[in-house]
Specification:
The complex is a heterodimer. Chain A has a domain at 23-122. Chain A is built from eight helices and no strands. Chain A has helices at residues 7-15, 23-50, 55-75, 79-86, 88-91, 94-107, 113-120, 125-147. The radius of gyration of chain A is 21 Å and the shape is extended. The mean pLDDT of chain A is 94. By secondary structure, chain B is an alpha/beta fold. Chain B has two domains: 6-177, Stage V sporulation protein AD (Peroxisomal Thiolase, Chain A, domain 1), CATH 3.40.47.40; 184-336, Peroxisomal Thiolase, Chain A, domain 1 (3-Layer(aba) Sandwich), CATH 3.40.47. Chain B is built from ten helices and 15 strands. The model of chain B has no long low-confidence stretch (mean pLDDT 96). The chains are: A mainly alpha, B alpha/beta.
């Protein structure tokens, strides 16, 4: 072959041959679905409040309910279809977090409860937990110092 | 020093071109709804194939497709001297587990999605060299076993990029032998590993296109054939993105293959209706299109001279996580209805 290209040149060369994602459509879908998920959460939150729970209990009830919904829809094989349509709209809310834990747990069930479900469950959510907790400790420390 | 059966650096001329005796294919339900459905030997209604894991299902497809090919050839396992097979799963377990059941002397191959032509190259040489009368060449892939190894869990709610390809659930096998009435394998061109620096494991078409261009160019230069000598020049699984790249790159090399070129990955699915984005991929893609569509059309005489170039991306999940680019390879076999004509 005569053609010689560096990685950069090849990347440039294929650029206009690659199909582009439908950014506008994806943004609208993410906005609508993400918004709807938040509406559901708000509904749960308001309902819990109307039963007279305090703010802390309301937050816990809402988060737990949404995690349950995300996990349940994943189990029924519906959440991946929502995700395919909504993209970030269904990944960012807490339901997406539930999906990222339940989907590998389902996928690796065949490898058993120890090496499969147990070991692989946090393969996607693990990094989120590790860095989420690390950053919250960091910010907490900064707040503690500056807050005084 | 040049040996007498070798033309140039990469192309091997088979002095006794082995003949395809029988070709069989098995595909999953989605492939069975695609445009080539009528050509496949067996279409599964359940992609678990009655097993309890995707890996077992894939190995069973391979086992069954080989059994079917041997049965269709009118021979029995004991007449088959060697089995050449490979697949995408770690340590090529689909093939090795199939070989465990079939009890045919086995040579396991890893060429990723180039395995169909790699196995035909090796099998043909074994026959041409006088070491075998008949061999079986086979490969398989399974969407679900490949996804869990290389990408995401099936139920995870993510969007695939528009240039992503869909791994074909399917297996294909060819019994080739010293004596037969064709189609014949006349030339084999062994590819080099090329890497143009693509790192995105979703962008296989762009990663593999240069390897295909290199092998096709070497084949045409070393045999002295023109692209229009062939009725069909077909790559294994470059998909729609790779197809656009290869046509343009071949022009740069001074060959216009536009009129005779196609890609198995572009043909196997209806990308719009079946939502497969850039088309099919996987070892099974070239395998089922060859053993289903191409060979059927050749036996009918609708096409007579085919150059099949199966392309493989030689990455692993580990190298992807470590940020390595994707090396690729392409092996070509020339398959013709008549021998000894043309250049």
């Amino acid at each position: 072959m005569k053609t010689k290209m560096s990685s950069k040149q090849y990347e440039q060369y294929i650029k206009n041959k690659m199909p582009k994602p439908a950014y506008l459509k994806n943004c609208v879908a993410a906005f609508i679905v993400g918004g709807l998920i938040c509406d559901v959460a708000q509904l749960i939150s308001n309902t819990a409040k109307s039963y007279g729970y305090n703010q802390e209990a309301v937050s816990s009830i809402t988060a737990a309910s949404m995690v349950f919904l995300g996990a349940f829809l994943t189990g029924l094989g519906i959440y991946d279809r929502i995700g395919k349509f909504a993209g970030a709209g269904s990944i960012v809310p807490i339901t997406g977090f539930a999906n990222s834990i339940v989907s590998p747990a389902m996928e690796f069930k065949r490898e058993g409860f120890v090496f499969g479900v147990g070991a692989k469950m946090f393969i996607l959510a693990g990094p989120v937990l590790v860095y989420g907790v690390s950053v919250s400790i960091l910010i907490g420390t900064i707040y503690y110092i500056l807050g005084k | 020093m040049m040996t007498e059966k070798r033309l140039g650096r990469q192309t091997l001329k088979l002095s006794t071109p082995p003949s395809m005796i029988s070709n069989t294919s098995i595909v999953g339900p989605k492939e069975g709804e695609g445009p080539l459905a009528q050509y496949f030997g067996q279409i599964l209604t359940d992609d678990y194939f009655g097993e309890d894991s995707w890996e077992k299902a894939e190995s069973k497809m391979l086992t069954e497709v080989v059994k079917n090919a041997i049965k269709a050839s009118g021979m029995s396992n004991t007449n088959i001297d060697f089995m050449f097979a490979g697949d995408l799963l770690n340590q090529i377990v689909s093939s090795s587990f199939a070989a465990r059941e079939l009890q045919i002397p086995y040579i396991g191959l890893y060429g990723a999605c180039s395995t169909m032509t790699e196995s035909l190259c090796m099998g043909s040489l074994m026959i041409d060299g006088g070491y075998a009368e008949a061999v079986v060449c086979a490969t398989s892939s399974h969407f679900s076993s490949a996804e869990r190894q290389y990408r995401f869990p099936l139920e995870q709610g993510v969007q695939r990029p528009p240039f992503a390809q869909w791994t074909v659930t399917g297996a294909g096998a060819a019994v080739i032998a010293r004596a037969g009435s064709g189609p014949y394998i006349t030339y084999a061109t062994i590819g080099k590993v090329l890497d143009f620096g693509i790192k995105d494991a979703n962008n296989m078409g762009a990663a593999m296109a240069p390897a295909a261009v290199d092998t096709i160019t070497a084949h045409l230069n070393e045999t002295g054939r023109k692209p229009d000598y062939y009725d069909l020049i077909i790559t294994g699984d470059l998909g729609n993105v790779g197809k656009a790249i290869i046509l343009d790159m071949m022009q740069k090399e001074g060959f216009d293959i536009t009129k005779v070129y196609n890609d198995c990955g572009s043909m196997i699915f209806d990308s719009e209706k079946q939502d497969t984005h850039a088309g099919g991929s996987g070892c099974g893609c070239a395998a089922v299109v060859l053993n289903g569509y191409i060979v059927s059309e050749m036996r009918k005489g609708n096409i007579n001279k085919v150059l099949l170039i199966a392309t493989g991306a030689l990455l692993s999940p580990t190298t992807t996580w470590q940020g390595e680019s994707i090396p690729s390879i392409a092996h070509a076999v020339a398959i013709e209805n008549t021998i000894g004509v043309g250049v």
